[in-house]
Write a structure and sequence with these properties.
The structure is a single chain. This protein is α/β, with parallel strands linked by helices and 244 residues long. Helix content is 57%, strand content 13%. The protein has eleven helices and eight strands. α7 (143-155) links the parallel β4 and β5. α4 packs across α5, α5 (60-75) runs antiparallel to α6 and α7 (143-155) packs parallel to α8. The longest helix has 21 residues, at 2-22. It is elongated, with a radius of gyration of 25 Å.
Length: 244
């Protein structure tokens, strides 16, 4: 099945390439009405009113992106409209990534699961322990905000902070700038007497990046854990429990 899909994709790409290279003279002889019919057919296949209504009801930003894309492709020449629509989509993705903020975790009462802390759930904290998570790729786009949020999370703790744990299950990629900032954050914590650990770093790419950029060496042995619970039991076994 996989080989068949690959073959179909390859044939389609070759057909498009052949049309681009050799099909222009033939298309010059095609009546404009026929070309218009083809374009209307394509537009009918990609114009999905039901999905657009669902997007409009769910998220205003993405609906505006849909409307802007449709207007660009309609008003401008196709190649210009498509290029601008792609750039607009990329800009939206970058904007979404830069808005990611550090969130704090709390332990579910009586259990070992650490979960994002919000108004709808009660949780437990350990004295002197801060558990935070960053739910996006860590890059130069958001690394400075990450460091600022990290400092503020430590300042909000009542009493001295002994241990900071970064829950990294959602960090699928780390670039050079972000790795340098993460390394600086680890060194700053150690300088102020705060131990630093990373839990649930599941991404193979992120693991390779941390090793390649020297962050794992800065973190040190015994500071990379499979779960937050494992990290707290190992590094803060005697920490008192309080309600979050």
């Amino acid at each position: 099945m996989g080989n068949q899909l690959f073959l179909q994709s390859l044939v389609a790409c070759l057909a498009v390439l052949a049309t681009i290279l050799y099909g222009a003279p033939m298309l010059d002889n095609v009546p404009e009405a026929a070309l218009a019919g083809v374009l209307f057919f394509v537009a009918g296949r990609i114009f999905r009113l039901r999905e657009m209504r669902e997007i409009a009801a769910s998220t205003r930003a993405e609906f505006l992106l849909v409307v802007a894309t449709a207007l660009l492709v309609t008003i401008l020449p196709v190649q210009n409209g498509v290029a601008l629509a792609i750039l607009l989509s990329l800009a939206h993705g970058v904007f979404t990534t830069t808005r990611t903020r550090l969130i704090e975790f709390a332990r579910r009462p009586g259990g070992s699961v650490w979960w994002p802390q919000d108004w709808s759930t009660t949780g437990e904290q350990l004295e002197g322990v801060v558990v935070v998570a960053f739910q996006a790729p860590l890059s130069f786009l958001n690394a400075y905000g990450f460091r600022k949020d990290l400092e503020e999370a430590i300042e909000r703790v009542q009493g001295p902070t002994r241990l900071l744990i970064l829950e990294a299950s959602s960090i699928v990629e780390i670039d050079y700038t972000a790795a340098q900032i993460l390394g600086e954050a680890i060194r700053d914590c150690r300088k102020h007497g705060v131990d630093f650990a990373i839990a649930r770093l599941e991404s193979v790419r992120a693991q390779a990046a941390l090793e390649r950029f020297g962050v794992l060496a800065t973190l040190g042995q015994g500071r990379l854990f499979h779960s937050v619970d494992e990290a707290t039991r190992t590094l803060a076994p005697d920490a008192a429990v309080r309600q979050a």
